[in-house]
């Protein structure tokens, strides 16, 4: 399993742009990268093979949500790809989470998306008709993930403390919405610096644009890593 720390979100539309981006890094620098839906649907399993051939660790963020049988079968496929971590939506229900775990087996980390960080409490009430607080809903879904023996959740860094209160030792929190001091926030609403995220107990931080859009991505990555390791 890869060391805790920054995961670079490879939010690119094709393999060529991934290759151009990775040229900024020395070959011996082994990264932990996130492949999301855009890149995976554009390139297919080839993207995983390519990144693995370079020696990088892979978080395949496909956020599965379907009937338990289908999710289990899909996880069996993903298990063979040699990825390090993948995601399902906790809203799919405990049965789906359990089947996902079964399909994936124990060699790959399985983490749940609770409430997307783009969902506000008001939207949750309106669209999902969940009448508790957003944080309560996140905690509820997290307990489901624990129950189904998942390894962790993706969450806002602002939710980590509340999540760690209801989860066993070793349950991981993977947090996007990270911005180094002074960086452009973009469309992220509530952000935290790498240092703050580590201090509140985040296990992995997912960082996209502050690295992918930097003049010098390797420098930007190193600065974030140093802040995390300080
Ligand atoms: O560029 P930026 O650092 O904002 O990228 C964050 C990455 O994390 C993106 O790939 C985004 O899709 C992902 N993400 C997120 N919020 C979530 C889940 C995933 O920003 N709740």
TrEMBL record:
Positions of substrate binding: 11, 34, 61-70, 117, 179, 188, 208-209
Domain Orotidine 5'-phosphate decarboxylase: 5-224
Class of enzymatic activity (EC top level): lyase
Keywords: Decarboxylase, Lyase, Pyrimidine biosynthesis
Pathway entry: Pyrimidine metabolism; UMP biosynthesis via de novo pathway; UMP from orotate: step 2/2
Gene3D superfamilies documented for this protein: Aldolase class I
Entry keyword Lyase: yes
EC number, UniProt record: 4.1.1.23
Active site location: 61, 63, 66
This protein's record includes keyword Lyase: yes
Gene Ontology CC terms, in alphabetical order: cytosol
SUPFAM superfamilies: Ribulose-phoshate binding barrel
Cited SMART domains: OMPdecase
GO BP terms: 'de novo' pyrimidine nucleobase biosynthetic process; 'de novo' UMP biosynthetic process
Family of this protein: Belongs to the OMP decarboxylase family. Type 1 subfamily.
Role played: Catalyzes the decarboxylation of orotidine 5'-monophosphate (OMP) to uridine 5'-monophosphate (UMP).
Subunit and partners: Homodimer.
Protein name: Orotidine 5'-phosphate decarboxylase
């Amino acid at each position: 399993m890869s060391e805790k720390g920054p995961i670079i979100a490879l939010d690119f539309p094709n393999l060529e742009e991934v290759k151009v981006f990775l040229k900024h890094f020395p070959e011996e620098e082994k990264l932990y990268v996130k492949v999301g839906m855009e890149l995976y649907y554009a390139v297919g399993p080839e993207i995983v093979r390519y990144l693995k051939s370079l020696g990088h660790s892979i978080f395949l963020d496909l956020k599965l949500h379907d009937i338990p049988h289908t999710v289990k079968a899909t996880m069996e496929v993903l298990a063979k790809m040699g990825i390090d971590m993948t995601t399902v939506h906790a809203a799919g229900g405990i049965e789906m989470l359990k089947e996902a775990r079964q399909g994936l087996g124990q060699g790959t980390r399985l983490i749940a998306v609770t409430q997307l960080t783009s969902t506000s409490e008001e939207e949750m009430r309106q669209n999902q008709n969940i009448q508790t607080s957003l944080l309560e809903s996140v905690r509820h879904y997290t307990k489901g993930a624990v129950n189904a023996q998942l390894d962790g959740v993706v969450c806002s860094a602002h939710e980590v403390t509340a999540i760690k209160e209801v989860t066993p030792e070793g349950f991981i929190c993977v947090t996007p919405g990270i911005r180094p001091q002074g960086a452009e926030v973009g469309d992220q609403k509530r952000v935290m610096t790498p240092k703050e995220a580590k201090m509140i107990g985040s296990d992995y931080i997912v960082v996209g644009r502050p690295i992918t859009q930097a003049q010098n991505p390797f420098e930007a990555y190193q600065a974030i890593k140093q802040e995390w390791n300080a």
